Amino acid sequence: MTSDEIQRAVFQAIRAIPRGQVAAYGDVAHRAGLPGRARLVGRLLRESPRSARLPWHRVLRADGRLAFPVDSEPYAEQARKLAAEGVALVGGKVPVRFFAWREDDIDAALWGPR
DNA sequence: GGCGTGACTATAC
DNA sequence: GGTATAGCCACGC
């Protein structure tokens, strides 16, 4: 796999995160066919230009915390973008139990076709 | 190749 | 709840 293909797979996985839901770096890596490479996802995001138009704000750490220092500007921006989609931070972290991106029957049961 | 570093994670106290 | 530790892997020096 070339680095270009890897980047494409990772970006595609990120773009597949539905609005109003979030995914951990490790989840994105897994969906991109790169299990165990959460750090690679972080590195690609860090290097990706804004023109990539990725929903990068939907990617966070496995425990629900954002990956930036709490007092940083990127942190504030990510929190704002998430809030705009209805994803609020509670105690400094996103309640992953509720907002995590899953494609299993849990979601279908909760907010699937009624 | 060694070593530190980092938008990471799981496990164990 | 918190800290510590180990594993992870790509990069740059």
Structure characterization notes:
Helices cover about 45% and strands about 5% of the residues. The chain is mostly helical and about 110 residues long. It has one domain (about 5-110): Winged helix-like DNA-binding domain superfamily/Winged helix DNA-binding domain (Arc Repressor Mutant, subunit A, Orthogonal Bundle). Strands 1-2 form a two-stranded parallel sheet. Helix 2 packs across helix 3. The protein is globular. It binds a DNA duplex (13 and 13 nucleotides) through helix 2, helix 3 and strand 2.
Helix content percent band: 40-55%
How far apart, in Å, are the first and last alpha carbons? Answer: 42 Å
Output the CATH homologous superfamily: Winged helix-like DNA-binding domain superfamily/Winged helix DNA-binding domain
Structural classification? mainly alpha
Q: What does the largest sheet look like?
A: 2 strands, parallel
Would you tell me which CATH topology applies? Arc Repressor Mutant, subunit A
Order of helices and strands: HEHHEHHH
Strand content: under 5%
CATH first level: Mainly Alpha
- Helical region count? 6
Residue-averaged pLDDT, rounded?
91
The total domain count is: 1
Number of strands: 2
Question: In the CATH hierarchy, what is the architecture at level 2?
Answer: Orthogonal Bundle
Spatial extent as radius of gyration: 14 Å
Bulk shape:
globular
